[in-house]
Amino acid sequence: MGNKQTVFTHEQLEEYQDCTFFTRKEIMRLFYRYQDLAPQLVPLDYTSCPDVKVPYELIGTMPELKDNPFRQRIAQVFSEDGDGHMTLDNFLDMFSVMSEMAPRDLKAYYAFKIYDFNNDDYICMWDLEQTVTKLTRGELSAEEVSLVCEKVLDEADGDHDGRLSLEDFQNMILRAPDFLSTFHIRI
Amino acid sequence: MLSDDQVNETVINVETVPSGVQNHLSSNMNVPAKLAVNSRFGTVSSISDIEVTDPQVFSHQNDRRAKQSVRFSSLNEMFSRSHHSSDSGDMDTPCTSRGSIQGRQKLIASLIPMTSRDRIKAIRNQPRTMEEKRKLRRMVDKEKSKQSRRIFELNCCSQCLNSISLAYRRSKNILSELLSSVSLWQKTLKIIGGKFGTSVLSYFNFLRWLLKFNVISFIVTFSFVTIPQFTVGGNNTFPFTGLEFFTGADYFTDTVMYYGFYTNSTIQHRSGGTSYNMQLAYIFTVAACLIICFFSLLFSMARYFRNNFINPHIYSRGIAKLIFCWDFTITHEKAVKLKQKNLSTEIKENLSEILQENGKLTLSQHLTRLSVHLAAWVVSTGMATACCAAVYYLAENNLEFLKSQKNPGATLLLPFVVSCINLAVPRFYSMFGLVEHYEIPRQEVYVLLIRNIFLKISIIGILCYYWLNIVAPADEKCWETVIGQEIYRLLLMDFVFSLADSFLGEFLRRVIGTRFITSLGLQEFDIARNVLELIYAQTLVWIGTFFCPLLPFIQMITLFIMFYVKNISLRMNFQPPSKAWRASQMMTFFIFLLFFPSFTGVLSTMAITIWRLKPSANCGPFRGLPFFIYSIYGWIDSLSNSPSYTWVVWIYQNLIGSVHFFFILTLIVLIITYLYWQITEGRKVMIKLLHEQIINEGKDKMFLIEKLSKLQDTDKRANPSSLTPERTDVEEPGPLYGREHEAAHDLRFRRSVQEHSPKA
Fold it and tell me: How large is the ipTM?
């Protein structure tokens, strides 16, 4: 292809191409987006695999994420230490999963982790309350919120243990075909 | 150490037994949060180094990692099983404390024999971090090169194949990069999605998809039919006035735009050079366009059905769907706030519906509702029939009317009336919604759609009938060109009306909504009505391609302009939708519509034209033939005289021309469909059984927990002084856990054995 890029080695780009759903051009474009977030922090030469993390505060200012109610959870799920600070790998991973080419199972897995606020591998009542609060931003009363959470558990909890496991979640997603198109961030 | 055994058991259960067990295990660990739950994970630390965590700390890196590694092994089974069933291997591998590494090795082993394409797909679909995927890829490559080094001499052929597949993959990547760079309107779609959400975006995606059809049709017809005609050329006797763009007549009549201009000769530029039979080219080109459209429609429809199967049995007033399907494409601050408000409203409505659900309607209320529905249906059908009758009457008298009128603009009367009907009647139908009440709001959308479809299809049907039965046999000078011109005028008038609607109608509605009657507010984009208009236009284009080969080009320009007009109008005059619109289901339905009444109608019209109608005697590529199809018959006859093409003649006579072949083909297709249907039914039953089983296992779990807690109580009461009498595992922070885990594990194991044995 056209211009020779000096950011990654050929091997690195091949690896990125094989491990994400992006083409080479898109990976380069994403790299420049990442670099734009923190130009002093992110070097223009990744051939030596520098260990650089862009802090969450800067990630959260991206126009694609800035107003999303779940931006903090998204950054936490995809970051290495769960604190929201992302390396380039995490960044590419995040947008790869949220792209339109990722399959439903993969998206469901990560959606489950995003909605699992306390990271216990189950969406329990507390997680649901947090989700509903973030979604409705104070429009619902506390009573309505708990009613909603109970209803959700009623509908989706297959084995009736009072919380949603990954399988319950995936089963429910099967019945919501819109999930694939809504769990999608275009970059 | 007992903790190790426990760890081992944990690992076995995760890897070997279906996931119901896993739930059980983790539930025992997490539900009694007062017991030092997370400290139990401290004993799992033989897998990875972790400190004992405080239960109050929500996210601890290593805690997550341990759970992740345990989960990954089971997920590996899930993902690798779905990709490559034969390689999942023996589930009952003996346990070691390195369970996760075991899982990874199994994954690598399953990845190695895959083709490189499948391998990359499997690696991409792994829910792992980039670093892990990279390591996986390197290890697989290393293993693969080790293996291939061993069998190098024997399989230089497979090396060839490998390099070919690598080259193919690289070229596919380059091609997809090129295509994505050419991909139209990416930024605009992102902005629309950001402000209005996925549902409105689906309309614009549909428009873009239809544009692709027209581009392909245009390229095919232009290169195979129009360009050869340019080389031959012809005379144009008409003067050019500006009115041609509207009427499509006069100057345009004698151009490549219409059927009548094309020659019926065999084009040959140099003697001895290749000859180009225009007749065959024309009919084969149009057939090729239709076949390409047919297959792309079929495949798109199949793909949408597979992903978004509309199963009426699973319909639930899903509040879970509202909660978990937040639209991540919305990126504008105001739009997000609005969406949150709308979501709250919808949730409240949903909750109140549940509370009201028990209220049954009285008989008289039922009857009233039914009679209102019936009245609405009668009125709508009556209106549609009246409109069709009006169109028919106008069309019938159109020919004499036109002869008596001198003004060329008179030809625009019929398109004008049709466009007015298409504009006014759907809006009239929408007003029925004020009177009719539906229990399920989705029913309302579907009923409205069906009424609109009925109207539009009837109008097209009447027009086709008029063209094929009245215009064609009327012995006009060049009836195919006449039909081409009429279709052109219809399309153009439709386009003009859409523009007027967007610029004037929607603008006025916004002014009224914001200045005069502020309670109305801004309107919402009516996706269904707009998509139906697109489908209507596309149907006309497909019918008209035979009579006017440049029609796909015109439609291309139309769609291009419509995109920008709708975009601007959307941003100025509309607000984001307030209700959740099931975009994927609706899209499936629309593509099905595009296929079923629309495209099949086009195919039948074409079939009638080609088999039943007599081409005009003085113009076009088929002049002089008794029927259009005779061009093919003549070609086959000429081929049967030359010895090298007897196979074509054979195929034609025995496969296409014979009834037996189609009969047998239909029979085979029916048998296969029946078999697939039976398999689907069987799977539905299996799903129901498995679902019941999951519920039963949940109940078992609860029962066991109660029983064991009772045991614990009786123990405590029996021996109040000693803390841990019979419990051998003193260091074990959760002896209760261990015991109930073992008992539960036995039960689970027994149950899973029972499960597997009937399957075996």
Answer: 0.92
